[in-house]
Amino acid sequence: MMQRLRLISGLVMLAYVTMHLLNHAVGLISLDAMENVLWYMFRIWMNRPAQLLLYGSFLVHYGLALYALWQRRTLRLRGSVRRFKLSKDPEFVPKLRQIVGLYVNPPAHAIVLSVDEKSQIQALDRTQPGLPMKKGRTGTLRHDYKRHGTTTLFTALNVLEGKVIGRCMQRHRHQEFILFLNAIEAEIQVGKIIHVVRQLRRAQNIPR
Questions:
Q1: Among 182, 196, 193, which Cα is nearest to 113's?
Q2: Where are the domains of the chain?
């Protein structure tokens, strides 16, 4: 209902402003034509129902704008996402509690790793080395560069200790992901249980 009122009141004000601007445009051609158009505008807008419609549309639009600001409780501009979209997974809440519990209260004799990846990283090399920073002058860097293909970065953050395990791979497949998991296992102390928090990649689709 409020959106419909906002739309209707905005269209009424848009019609009035458009006719007003068209009248000015006609005045660039001929003053007599401008007076003729102005006479028709007076016939359309200078009557009691039209004035009530115009002023009422202005008040409704202004009031809805104030109400929207009052609902936001801030003058900051909103981003593209206005609300949090919950998952349709029926087990979403238990999974959420399990993951948050791992972060907040890691189990004893275990390690919690937050694993993520970044693919298609451009390996760039400047054509000439830049000058180092010194007193009174910032470091310089040339604008042109050479491309050396792309790489994929796999990282695992140890939540408790703040340490990062990282590997760069040439490709972005499940084989490279398995190699990275093996590298994690090789660096973790024997006997430790590893809890990996991972998103996007579906583990059940990986053969091993």
A1: 196
A2: 2-72, 107-124+145-203
